[in-house]
Amino acid sequence: MTSAPAARPGLLGGPVERDREARLAALLPPIAIGVVVLLVWEIGLSVLGVRQFLLPKPSVIAGAIADQWPVLQRGLAYTGFEALAGLAVGVSFGVLAAFATARWGVAREILMPVAIGASSIPIIAFAPITSAWFSSESPLSRIAIVTLMVFFPVMINTVRGLTNVDPAAIELMRSYAAGELTIVRKVRIPNAVPYFFTALRIAATLAVIGAVIGEYFGGPRYSLGIYITSEAYVFRYQNAWAAIVMACLLGIAFYLGAMLLERLAVPWQRSDRAAEP
Amino acid sequence: MTTTDATMDPPAVRISGVSKTFGSGPGAVAALEAVDLSILPGELVSLIGPSGCGKSTLLRIVGDLTSASAGEVLVNGKPSERARLDRDYGMVFQAPVLMDWRTVARNVELPLEVMGFGRAERTERSRRLLSLVELQDFGGKYPWQLSGGMQQRAAIARALAFDPKLLLMDEPFGALDEMTRERMNLELMKIWSQTATTIIFVTHSIPEAVFLSSRVVVMSPRPGRIARVIEIDLPQPRAFETRELPRYFELVTEVREALRGRDGDLPAGPDDAGPARLRVEGLG
Question: Is A233 an interface residue toward B (CB < 8 Å)?
Fold first, then answer.
C-alpha cells in the first residue's frame, strides 16, 4: 500500500545488501531537501532582515527547544496521551461499528450515508462544545474530539474492506460448503486488513491534529496547544515555534507507528518482501 | 438429443430437463431450456458455444452456485446441493481467485482448512499438489509474485486438494495467451490422467475443447440448449502430437460446423464472440 508497485523486485528478488542500500539511497534526496530548506530559511531571514517575531530562524527555534525542554517534554507526553487514548477508543468503536454495519444489510443502507456525511463535517469545530461538556483541565474533552474525528474514517474504510470482497471468492468458499462465520474469518477479515490500515494512517494524523487544536480551547498550561497559544500571546514566538515543532514530530511519530504496524500486519503487500530471507 | 445412457455405469452427473430463466414477466430471459445430459465417471466433457448460450450457467447449476428454474441435477445420485455440502466439487474459475494474503501453499490449503484437515495432512497435500502442477518451488511466494499461468495452476492445485469427485472448470484458461493455454491444456491432460477426476470444462475455444475432451457438448443460444454432442475419438493420452493428427482437424471442423448451426445464425466461432459477449455478458 505504501510504496509504488513499480518498486517490486523481480520474482527472485535482489540480495538483501543491495536492497538495503537502495532503501538508504531512496532516503537521501528528502534528507538533502530538508537540509537545503533549513539553510535557506536560516540564511534567507538574515539576508532579508525578517524580524524574529514574524518568523524565527531554525537555530533560534532549536535553542528554544533546548531551553524549554522540561515543559515541552511534559506537553509532548500529555498531548501524546490524549491523541493516543482518543485514537484507541475511536478505532475500537470504528471497527466494532464496521462489523455491525457490514453484518446487517439494513444497518449498512442506513448508517453508511450518515457516516460518509459525518466524515465530511469538520469535527474540530465541536472542540469548544466538548470543552464545555468536560472540565477544560480534563483530557476527556480532547479525547472525545479525537475519538469522533477518528471514528468515521476507520468505520467507513473497514466496512468497505469487509464488503468489497471478490464475489468469486465467496462462491469459492460456498463450493467448499463453508459457513458464514468461516467466510468472515477466512475472506472478509483478511480482505479488510489493508483497508483498515489505510484508515489507521489517516486516523493517526487526525488524532494529533485533534488533540493539539482541541487544546486551543482549554487544557493544562503545559499541554502543547495551550503552550503554543499562551506563548504566542505574550510574543515569545520562538517558544510557540518550539512547541509547534514538537506537535509536528508527534504527528510524524504517530504516522510512522501506524505504518510500522501496517508493515507487520500486511506482509503480503510489502514491496521488499521477496528480497528478505 | 440423446445421451450416453446406453452404458451401464451410473452417471457422475445427470442433468434432466434443466431450464433457467433470469428475471420474470416480459423482461425475462431464458438462459437454458430443457437441457438433458449425462456424464460418466472419469469423463472430461466440454461445454462450448457462443456467449449467451448458458454454458457457464449450466456449470453453475451443476455446482449449486445458482439454482435451476426447472429440472433436476443429480451428482453421483445426489441432488446438487447435497453434493456441494458433501464437498464433491472442485471449482476453477476464469480468474484464479487466489487470496492475496495467503502464500501459494496456504492458498492450496484453504479448502483443507475449511474442511477441518489436520496441519500435517494439509502440508503434505499442498506439497504433493504443488509438485503435480509444477509449482513446488513457489509455495512460499505470494500470488502477485506469480505469472497468470502459474496462478491458474495454483488454482487448479487448490481445486484438487481435497480430492473432489467432480471438477468444474469455467473457462479456466480463457485469460491466458495462446502458447500458455496450449501448455496448460497439456498439463491438464496429465493431471486428469493421474487423478481420474470427472471434469466439466466450459470454453470458448474449439481447439481446446477438441484437444481435451472425451465429448464436446455444443450449445446454441437464446434460449441456451444443447445443439449437438460430439464424441472425440482421439487416442489417449493426448499429447503435443495430437494437435497434428488429421482426425484432430476433422473434429475441429465438425465442432465449428455444429457451432455455426443449421440456420447459420450463430456466430462463426469462439474467437469472434467479442461483440456478442458485450450484449449478453450476464448469461455467459
Answer: no
Q: Please give the biggest Cα pair distance in chain B.
A: 58
Task: Kindly report, residue by residue over B86-130, the tens digit of the pLDDT.
Answer: 888 899 998 999 999 999 999 999 999 999 999 999 999 999 889
Query: What phi and psi values does residue B19 have, to the nearest 5 degrees?
Result: -125, 155
Closest to A162 measured CA to CA, from A144, A176, A183 = A183
pLDDT tens per residue across span B126-168: 998 898 888 889 999 999 999 888 999 899 899 988 888 899 9
**Of A201, A190, A78, whose CA–CA distance to A141 is shortest?**
A78
Greater confidence (A268 vs B109) lies with B109
State how far the Cα of A189 lies from the Cα of A110, in Å rounded to an integer. 22
Q: What is the pTM of this model?
A: 0.79
Q: Domains of chain B: which residue ranges?
A: 1-88+165-175+191-278, 96-163
Q: How far apart are CA B168 and CA B9, in angstroms?
A: 21
Please choose, from the candidates B255, B241, B133, B238, the residue with its C-alpha nearest in 3D space to the C-alpha of residue B184: B133
Closest CA to A146 of A97, A197, A83, A99: A83
Nearest to A175 among B84, B95, B113 (CB): B84
Q: Which helix (H) or strand (E) segment is B89 a member of?
A: strand B89-92
Residue from B78, B145, B146, B169 to probe the interface with A (highest A Cβ count within 10 Å) = B145
The answer to whether the beta carbons of residues B90 and B256 sit under 8 Å apart is no
Asked if residue B204 lies in contact with residue B55, where contact means CB atoms within 8 angstroms, the answer is: no
Question: Helices B178-195 & B148-160, crossing angle to 10 degrees?
Answer: 20
> How many angstroms separate the CA atoms of B191 and B233, rounded?
20
Among B194, B219, B187, smallest CA distance to B206 is for B219
Cα–Cα separations (whole angstroms), residue A187 to A163, A190, B93? 10, 6, 17
Task: Say yes or no: A17 contacts chain B, CB-CB below 8 A.
Answer: no
- Interface ipTM: 0.80
Average confidence score pLDDT of chain A? 85
Q: How far is A257 from chain B (nearest CA, A)?
A: 22
Would you state the CATH architecture of domain B1-88+165-175+191-278?
A: 3-Layer(aba) Sandwich (3.40)
Cα torsion B3, B233, B11, A174: sign: negative
- The answer to whether the peptide bond before residue B237 is cis (omega within 30 degrees of 0) is yes
Inform me whether the pLDDT recorded for A241 exceeds 80: yes
> Which triple of cell numbers denotes residue A128?
469548544
Q: Looking at the predicted structure, is the pLDDT value of residue A39 above 70?
A: yes
Q: From A74, A73, A233, A219, select the one nearest A146 (Cα to Cα).
A: A219
Under DSSP, the state recorded for A184 is I
Q: Locate B277 and state its grid cell.
A: 459477449
Give CA–CA dist B128/B161, Å, rounded: 9
Average pLDDT over residues A5-21: 52
Contact B63 A175 (CB under 8 A): yes
pLDDT, averaged across chain B: 85
Give the pLDDT confidence of A77-120 residue by residue, as tens digits. 999 999 999 999 999 999 999 998 888 877 777 888 888 888 88
- Whether residues B114 and A171 touch (CB distance < 8 A) is answered with no
Question: Per-residue DSSP letters for B153-183?
Answer: HHHHHHHHTT--SEEEEESTTTTS-HHHHHH
